[in-house]
Amino acid sequence: MDGLNITAEKIKTMEIRGAGRIAVAASAALRDYAMSLKDMGLDEFNLKIEEAAKTLVDTRPTAVSLPNAVALTRRHSAGNVSDAIDEIAGNAERFIKNASEALEKIGRIGAQRIRDGDVIMTHCNSHAALSIIKTAFDQGKDISVVATESRPRRQGFITIRELNDHGIPTTLIVDSAVRLTMKKIDLVVVGADSISVNGALINKIGTSQLALAAQEARRNVIVAAETYKFSPRTLLGEMVEIEDRSIDEVIDPEFLSELPNVRVSNPAFDVTPAEYIDLIITEAGAFPPAMAFTVIKDYLGLELEI
Ligand code: RI2
Predict the structure, then answer these.
(1) Which residue, 57, 116, 167, 257, is most buried by CB atoms nearer than 10 A?
(2) Tens digit of pLDDT for each residue in 247-302?
């Protein structure tokens, strides 16, 4: 499991990050691991795939793209190991190809919602959200972006580099400047780690503050999310777990050791209720959040992860 463990570790430490990227990396790691298994019976093979799937899924708890990718990759109906490997490899190829095509389609569909002259606020670093912004820019629309820093990991720096390299005029703000800046922007475009059956968005901590400020200023909030970021398990009443990351991301542990009465908390995601979201742009079309159940049923299948 060497290669698979390396990928798992990279996902855990966020060397590989972003809900879409971790899904694609996990699918590829599972494929490579399956292909490395030989000289064993089907039961042993299935057990090893089960363990490997658990290792990958246990790395980060919030982005449902990860268990969805693993579930879509690992399932097979083969009667022998060699056919099972072929099925798993085929599943992975399909998932990875679909994920990449989904980003392009989301870009094309989402760009329709961007008008010439728009100033767009985005949060953290989302490839799906950036696909919309870049596509609109490539269509010749005169747009600019306000990007939040996104403490504590500062994924906003990845975003501003990407936008800079694409030639898109960009302003960086600290997270606490969101509300003040909201009146200067036209709409918010963010990504998604998970979308639950009630249309709520789970995304990088601070997203719900953008949405609150946007509602107050009557600006639209658009979410860019591949269909595999919808959570089938929420149909069973399961809540999406919010990842608590190390407090070392927030504060120097040495400084903290001088403050015996202080505790630090570092939740990595928050929940934005459906009523704050105008539209979710998927590769299958632009849906209101109220249609989350339909997306899960028609594009993921109710049997997934249930
Ligand atoms: P794409 C990221 O999580 C951010 O929350 C981002 O909005 C979301 O994944 C979706 O990203 P993290 O891995 O899949 O930085 O659109 O914690 O790239």
Answers:
(1) 57
(2) 999 999 999 999 999 999 999 999 999 999 999 999 999 999 999 999 999 998 76
Q: What DSSP string runs through 104-126? A: HHHHHHHHTTPPTT-EEEE-S--
Amino acid residing at 47: L
Q: Which CATH superfamily is 2-101 part of?
A: translation initiation factor eif-2b, domain 1 (1.20.120.420)
The model's pLDDT over 248-258, given as tens digits with 9 standing for 90+, comes to 999 999 999 99
Give the residue, out of 16, 134, 203, 221, with the most ligand 1 atoms within 8 A of its beta carbon, to mutate for a pocket test.
203
Q: Where are the domains of the chain?
A: 2-101, 106-300
The residue nearest atom 17 of ligand 1, judged by CA position, is 18
Ligand 1 atom nearest to 123, measured from its CA: 7
**Ligand 1 centroid from CA 86, angstroms:** 30
- Cβ-contact 254, 247 below 8 angstroms: no
Task: Decide whether any atom of ligand 1 lies within 6 Å of the 185 Cβ.
Answer: no
* Encoded tokens for 257: 């050791």
pLDDT in tens, 13-67: 999 999 999 999 999 999 999 999 989 999 999 999 999 999 999 999 999 999 9
Got the DSSP string for 70-93? HHHHH----SSHHHHHHHHHHHHH
